[in-house]
Amino acid sequence: MKKSNSYKATVVLGISFFGLLLSYPFKDSFTGGFFTSLCSAAMVGGIADWFGVTALFRKPLGISFRTEIIPRNREKIFNEMANMVQNEFLTKERLKSKVEEYDIADLLIRYLKEHGGKQDMKEVLDKVVQNLLDEIHPQEMGVFIEKLIKDGVEKAQVSPIVVKVIAWSIEHGYDDLIIDFTCKELIRIIKRKEVHDELTMFIKRVRSEYEKHSVVRTLTDKILLDWFLSLSPANIAQLLQDKGCNLLEDKHVLRKEIRIYIENWLKKLKEDKNTQDKIEKLKVEIVKKISIHEQLAQVIKTYKEVAATHSEGVFYLIKDINQEVNNLITRFEDNVERRNQLNSKVQQKVIQWIDKEHGYIGKMVNESLNHFTNAMLIEFIESKVGNDLQMIRINGSIVGGLVGAFIFVITFWFV
Predict the structure, then answer these.
(1) CA angle 308, 314, 316 (to 5 degrees)
(2) Which InterPro entries match (predicted)?
């Protein structure tokens, strides 16, 4: 098909030439003159158009004047093509409107669910975490994480956090749960035999200090406490335990007192700068005493060992990772607000990039076109429109012949 019209044009030109040779001897007659004019005009038109078509790409007959039009003007052509692509086809407004039409979140979800994105995520995470574990030195990382935690805690203001946590707990009724739990634990502790023994020893020491080798005090203690009241150190200890338990079991009174104390302390913490400074100072002192780098190092070492001994890699340590990824995708898919936020942010970034880098489209087109040599450019254009260009030769012969015949008729009858 590429040579089809070229072949036809050559055939038409050949017919015109032989037609001229055959009719020229009879040019003085009407018929001979008619065909002579027709064929000569067709041949001239065909040759002229052959010259014009060839001159677009090469030097016909070796003539260099005004020929090789496309190779000579390749830079202008490329610049115009780049300008057309950048400023007519891919304008800023058109690109922006296309970006705004895309649902980026939907594309992301379909990639994750339908095109292997979930598995890609798992493999990337596996490689990243595995590489991190391979490069990590447990002791160094333990020290680093401990320092990171301490620095973060020291810089953070604890007082506002404490106020918010306590206020939220009171608002949602968690203070009652905490008080009930604390009371039960304290009752359990108070009833223990060890507490009873400690209280007994303490009371004995107090009585011993009180008596101090005084016969009168000793007799008083024995007669009054031991004989009449039957309050031996063991009995007094038991009474104290019972009293403490009864006090803790009276939840309504205790809860009211504790709540009042908490509210007063909370108000003081909100307004009193000295109390806030004390909390922050206590925080710093506690943080300085904390040493967890050894425990962190051991945890990291364990993770490395487990990951190294299982074919599933680090994901052996994470149960149901596929289900978690599915849940994450589902939550994102159902959360319209987050999807809109993602679309808005991505579109905004892309539009900013278009505003900043739009001129690069023309440069990119120009750079791509400049890879074509003259021979490649000619071959490319001829492969796309060469067959159509050959129609110019055919049309030139036909139109030239018709015009030649028309002129002969006019001149023959009217001149």
Answers:
(1) 100
(2) DUF445
